[in-house]
Design goal:
It is a single chain. It is globular, with a radius of gyration of 24 Å. Helix 2 packs across helix 9 and helix 10 packs across helix 11. It is built from 21 helices and 15 strands. The strands form four sheets. A six-stranded parallel β-sheet has the order 4-3-5-6-7-8. A five-stranded parallel β-sheet has the order 10-9-11-12-13, with helices on both faces. It is of the alpha/beta class.
């Protein structure tokens, strides 16, 4: 039986882990499982009758999605591994619970931000002044803090640009959650029943043996119940908070605290205006996921430009919402992308500097579409860096900064030269940039520069047709296939040719779409 590391940590325990490396599931199958989890969660939510249950489900949905997608994906990988005579090694508790059925009670995770409780007099006011100063001129600061038209819960470039001329104060989401948790709010919903019905919805379509189906159901139920119970008591506590903002501005709904506060504000008849970040919303073809992750508890949602707004309308994203869709609006460009230098230095005639930009090892998280499994992705990165290093070029990598948090390791800098700078500084030093994942802010920053881009899309990302055509005009795309062991493959000769002929590119199309340039 071939041993295959399931986690980055397990790689260190397998001396010859790359020799017979294989993965039991094809990437297309992994992507399908992840998207089916989104579909199952939406279908389950539609069966809920009471408004309270729906709100609790909406607040907990990010955690339920992670719990469900992880259980479904791991169960299918274990089932396929048995058939392929592969042994997945690693200490992830969910994997052990599904594999041997002896640790079902162990894997309970605390997902929720720690609440903040101020003990210093006037600390809240001082915090509001300090934060409001980021978007408010000094002569209007007192009015913004004392009589605001809305409160900012979290910031971003689009929000700060839109705040110009508005009277906006700041309110700390963690403080409001802390205040809500001071109330001994009784449970209003049956979290155990909600968790059990969600588990049944998820496992209905799992194509795995019955023992794995039963273990997956138990795992989802055990992990979902505390998430739903916490969502219940937090919303109950927030309903007693008197000084909650009437109107709020915020970034993505991916933060638990800002999502909870948004749900309560909307319940009271207020408004929650959110602002896109990262660049992909409206450009890719994952509307149901964005509706669930970015746009929950939202009355108004602002994208970068009228061009993005038009693409979002064509995607029919309104159908992805179980209730009323937000009102979608357009800004005049995202300052983050406008700040990217339009023109860099010409590519030198000699050895170019090549920068490989990787994404994160996802650890226990599951993205849509999924990032490759840890061992498969690390093997790919090594083979890619070796091929680049064989060229007449200076080669650097830019690992994702969240790797130590998500997976507990940052393996690539121990093997290859790495740029330990901000991405903007690394982009300015590069003559050619290589990406293997394009659903990232870094990718959109790069296409707004004139740096040549080589794209090897491991995730097989889906785009709006117009955007895919733009990407193909802007980037040199290298085909990625998968062998019988489900390892991604590329042609080193094609990569070498791309490096040799790539020249500075025209970013105008993407700058008009994202930065709002004329």
């Amino acid at each position: 039986m071939t041993r295959v590391p399931f986690t980055i940590q397990a790689v260190a325990d397998e001396a010859n882990w790359r020799r017979d490396l294989a993965w039991p599931l094809a990437p297309e199958r992994r992507a399908d499982i992840a998207e089916r989890t989104v579909t199952a969660l939406r279908a389950w939510r539609k069966t809920l009758v009471s408004a309270t249950d729906k709100e609790i489900a909406d607040l907990a949905s990010l955690h339920l999605l992670t719990i469900g997608a992880r259980a479904a994906l791991y169960a299918h990988e274990l089932s396929a591994a048995e058939l392929a005579n592969l042994k997945l090694t690693g200490s992830r508790p969910e994997l052990a619970a599904l594999r041997d059925g002896t640790s079902l009670a162990a894997p309970r995770r605390e997902f929720f931000e720690a609440p903040r409780r101020s003990r210093i007099p006037f600390a809240r006011t001082l915090r509001a002044i300090r934060n409001a100063r980021r978007w408010t001129p000094l002569h209007r600061l007192a009015r913004a803090v004392l009589t605001p038209e809305a409160h900012v819960l979290s910031t971003g470039g689009l929000l700060i640009a839109a705040a110009d001329g508005r009277s906006l104060s700041y309110a700390s989401p963690s403080e409001m959650i802390g205040q809500a948790r001071l109330t001994a709010a009784p449970a209003r919903a049956d979290a155990a029943t909600l968790a059990a019905t969600w588990a049944r919805f998820l496992v209905t379509e799992l194509d795995v043996p019955e023992r794995l189906r039963e273990r997956a159901s138990n795992l989802v139920r055990l992990q979902s119940e505390p998430a739903l119970a916490r969502a219940d008591t937090d919303l109950a506590g927030l309903s007693t908070v008197r000084d909650l903002p009437r109107n709020a501005w915020a970034g993505s709904a991916g933060s638990y605290a800002t999502r909870a506060i948004g749900i309560e504000i909307l319940r009271r008849g207020g408004s929650v205006r959110r602002f896109a970040h990262g660049g992909a919303v409206g450009l890719d073809d994952y509307g149901a996921t964005h509706a669930l992750v970015d746009m929950a508890a939202t009355s108004h949602y602002t994208v970068a430009t009228e061009g993005v707004l038009s693409l979002l309308g064509e995607s029919a994203i309104e159908s992805a919402f179980d209730g009323a869709a937000p009102r979608f609006e357009a800004a005049r460009g995202d300052p983050k992308f406008r700040a990217v230098a339009r023109r860099g230095r010409p590519r030198p005639a000699g050895r170019p500097t090549i920068l490989y930009v990787g994404t994160a090892f996802s650890g226990p998280l599951v993205h849509v579409p999924p990032i490759p499994p840890d061992a498969i992705y690390l093997d790919w990165q090594c083979r890619l860096m070796d091929s680049l290093a064989a060229l007449d070029a200076d080669v650097w990598c830019k690992p994702h900064p969240e790797n130590p948090v998500l997976s507990g390791a940052q393996p690539l800098p121990a093997l290859y030269p790495a740029m330990d700078t901000s991405f903007g500084e690394a982009l300015a030093r590069a003559d050619i940039v290589v990406f293997d994942y394009c659903l990232s802010t870094s990718f959109w920053e790069a296409v707004c520069s004139d740096r040549p881009i080589i794209l090897m899309d491991l995730a097989g990302s889906r785009w709006r047709p117009q955007v895919r055509a733009m990407i193909d005009r802007r980037c040199r795309r290298i085909a990625v296939s998968h062998d019988s062991a489900n390892r991604p493959q590329f042609d080193p000769a094609e990569l070498a040719d791309a490096v040799s002929v790539t020249r500075n590119a025209d970013p105008s199309e993407f700058r008009r779409l994202l930065a709002g340039d004329a």
